[in-house]
């Protein structure tokens, strides 16, 4: 997980990342273009907890 923190911190201070209760919390430090955020989201998706998408129940 520290590898992800280093990657995020190295990415031009786009986000501040820290561990909170075992979860990775990423907070925006300054306004950044959406490309940077898609990159951060991709990193979080790769390193984040692998969990199945929740199935939505249809209203009858």
UniProtKB/TrEMBL annotation:
- Superkingdom: Bacteria
Protein name per the record: Uncharacterized protein
Naturally occurring in which organism (per UniProt): Thioalkalivibrio nitratireducens (strain DSM 14787 / UNIQEM 213 / ALEN2)
Query: What is the phylogenetic placement of the source species in the record?
Result: Bacteria, Pseudomonadati, Pseudomonadota, Gammaproteobacteria, Chromatiales
């Amino acid at each position: 997980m520290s590898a992800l923190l280093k990657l995020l911190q190295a990415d031009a201070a786009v986000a501040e990342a820290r561990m909170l209760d075992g979860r990775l919390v990423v907070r925006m430090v300054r306004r950044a273009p959406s490309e940077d955020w898609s990159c951060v989201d991709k990193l979080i998706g790769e390193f984040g907890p692998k969990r199945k998408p929740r199935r939505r129940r249809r209203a009858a």
